[in-house]
Design goal:
Elements (H helix, E strand, L loop, with lengths): L18 E8 L8 E5 L11 E6 L4 E2 L2 E2 L9 E6 L7 E6 L17 E5 L5 E5 L6 E5 L5 E5 L4 E5 L5 E4 L5 E4 L49
Parallel strand pairs: 3-7
Antiparallel strand pairs: 1-2, 1-6, 2-3, 4-5, 6-7, 8-9, 9-10, 10-11, 11-12, 12-13, 13-14
Protein name: Gp5/Type VI secretion system Vgr protein OB-fold domain-containing protein
InterPro entries: Gp5/Vgr_OB (IPR006531), Vgr_OB-fold_dom_sf (IPR037026)
Organism: Geodermatophilus obscurus
């Protein structure tokens, strides 16, 4: 329904078929019907402020579920009208223009699909046939890369710490500070465990012999 004295609630004037530009002015629908308020700068007399609550189309909308991505206030959107009725607008999408620019630069292969948030978080799908991958990057630089081309997976903290799963099955953990594990119990099953630094234990209980190339007698040692 139009929110302007320029036209009555039940518009009986000309029909408006096709698509028209509009500007988002509000996103909090008082009736919670999934609408956004839009303004039609091209409609009415000069200086007229003609607005309407328009149904926002979504690729997935159902009861208490769906895909929600509301356009920001001030965003240019494209509007169509049901059966040409000016009082029944639908927002069919938003568009970039000379003021709001695309977040990426298009390339001829057109391999990438990108979702970028206002704060700079990015979800990128790279469909390069030789090296497909999915990358998720947060505003502060935390990164997850699912690399099908390299058959690897890597989680990277913004400080440079990483967890990497390699094609050979190796898992590599690299931390720039202490790694702490807290659990009710910790079981490690491996034929060989290699430590190249000092090991400090509060209590040690062994069920087999402890073998070392050097041995220092001391309290508790068994001769």
């Amino acid at each position: 329904m139009l929110d302007s004295a320029a036209h009555p609630p039940h518009w009986t004037g000309s029909s408006f078929f096709g698509l028209y530009p509009a500007l988002v002015t509000d996103i909090v629908d008082p009736d919670r019907l999934g609408r956004v308020q839009v303004r039609f700068p091209w409609l009415g007399d000069t200086g007229a402020d003609v607005r309407s609550w328009a149904t926002l189309l979504s690729p997935y909308a159902d009861d208490d579920q769906g895909f929600v991505a509301l356009p920001a206030v001030g965003t240019q959107v494209v509007v169509g009208f049901e059966a040409g009725d000016l009082g029944r607008p639908y927002v069919v999408g938003s568009c970039w223009n000379g003021r709001e620019m695309m977040p990426v630069t298009p390339t001829r292969p057109n391999d990438k699909r990108v979702l970028k948030s206002r704060t700079g978080a990015v979800l990128e799908f790279d469909d390069n046939a030789a090296a497909p991958k999915v990358t998720l990057v947060s505003r502060d630089g935390h990164r997850v890369v699912l690399d099908d081309g390299g058959r690897s997976l890597q989680v990277t903290h913004s400080d440079g710490s990483t967890v990497t799963f390699t094609p050979s099955g190796q898992i590599s953990l690299r931390a720039n500070a202490t790694v702490e594990v807290t659990a009710a119990a910790l079981n490690v099953h491996a034929p060989t465990a290699v430590f190249d630094g000092m090991i400090s234990c509060t209590n040690v209980v062994t069920s087999v012999a402890v073998v070392s190339p050097s041995y220092s007698p001391g309290a508790g040692n068994v001769w």
